[in-house]
Amino acid sequence: MTEELPASKLGTKEHWDMVYERETKEYEETGDEGEIWFGEGAVDKMVDWTYQYIPPFADGSGPTVMECGCGNGTLLLSILYPTKPKYRRSVPRHSPRHFTGIDYSDLSIELSSKVEGLRRRRWERRIRSDERRKEAGEELGVDSDSDSEEESDGEDDDDENDEQVDAGTSSHTKDETTNNPPGVTWFASDLLTSTLQTLHSQSSSVPLDGWDLVLDKGTYDAIALSQEPVQSGPESSRGKLPSAVYPERVVGLVKPGGFFLITSCNFTEDEIKTRFIREGLVGRSSSTVKHPSFSFGGKTGSTVCTVAFRRV
Ligand SMILES: C[S@@+](CC[C@H](N)C(=O)[O-])C[C@H]1O[C@@H](n2cnc3c(N)ncnc32)[C@H](O)[C@@H]1O
């Protein structure tokens, strides 16, 4: 028997619309991209996992990646435009055309495409800077797994400062939307009621056989904080709690042979496995990130865990 979390406003769409309205305003005024759920460490862990198990294909044909509940888009964009020298210098990189971010809040989608413009410009500057330094015969920095890895690229810091200044000007937003149309497909949909087919009818870029990698960082945690039974979508899910329906929907979004990678703070690794392992989706490899004082509407002092599943 799995224990349900108490209902919380974090399980409602109204809450997330409010969050992204505030974050968009903040972004436009200051260039702040918004909340990094579970911190940069959790993002790094998911980026590392992806580059280890689903590296860019040499011919640029794949893989396809989708984030469930993409929020401000920062996880997806950290994979697409990696900052760690060892990933950003591995050419070719993942293709923006194969990346999709889905969230039920329209405002999250709007924010994600703006953040994409910013990240892409920063990425292009970094690549130009790498090229200049290479031409000048400079060392491009020693790749390592240490936290200070990014600091080896001093010029990047200047680029980021430039962006901060840009972000404070009114032309910033205009430039992004006019000169940086999004390459990632971002769109709004409720993942509790959507299937691959309904998502495909919303965007033809949705692969009908599913994605090679489906990501979740904090979305299942949020969904499990709603106690409102699901009312629409596939018949078999109606009347069930969101926490039970979401794993059923997710398995159908992963391509056979593909992966589902989830980071949660409200459930332990064992609880995540109990809830997600089902016919067709098996636990593959896992790792746990200790994060002793994190609280997210449910349990206080939770640990963050990252678990990977493979669709068979
Ligand atoms: C804790 S935030 C995490 C955002 C993002 N994954 C990140 O790590 O920054 C949870 C996200 O799930 C989205 N969400 C919650 N329920 C959803 C649903 N039924 N369908 C689609 N998105 C949902 C929220 O709008 C919110 O953006």
Description:
The chain has 11 helices and 7 strands. The two termini are 25 Å apart. Helix content is 41%, strand content 18%. The chain has one domain (9-311): Vaccinia Virus protein VP39 (Rossmann fold, 3-Layer(aba) Sandwich). Strands 3-2-1-4-5-7-6 form a 7-stranded mixed β-sheet, with helices on both faces. The model is unreliable at 142-179 and 289-294 (pLDDT under 50). It is globular. With 312 residues, the chain is α/β, with parallel strands linked by helices. The chain has helices at 13-30, 39-53, 74-80, 85-88, 106-135, 154-167, 171-179, 196-202, 219-223, 242-251, 269-276; strands at 65-68, 99-103, 185-188, 211-217, 254-264, 281-294, 302-311. Strand 6 (281-294) and strand 7 form a beta hairpin. The longest helix is centred in the middle third of the chain and has 30 residues, at 106-135. Helix 2 packs across helix 3, helix 5 (106-135) packs antiparallel against helix 6 and helix 5 (106-135) crosses helix 7. S-adenosylmethionine (SAM) binds at residues 16, 37, 69-72, 74-75, 103-105, 108, 190-192, 217-219, 222-223. Residues 16, 37, 69-72, 74-75, 103-105, 108, 190-192, 217-219, 222-223 line the site of S-adenosylmethionine (SAM).
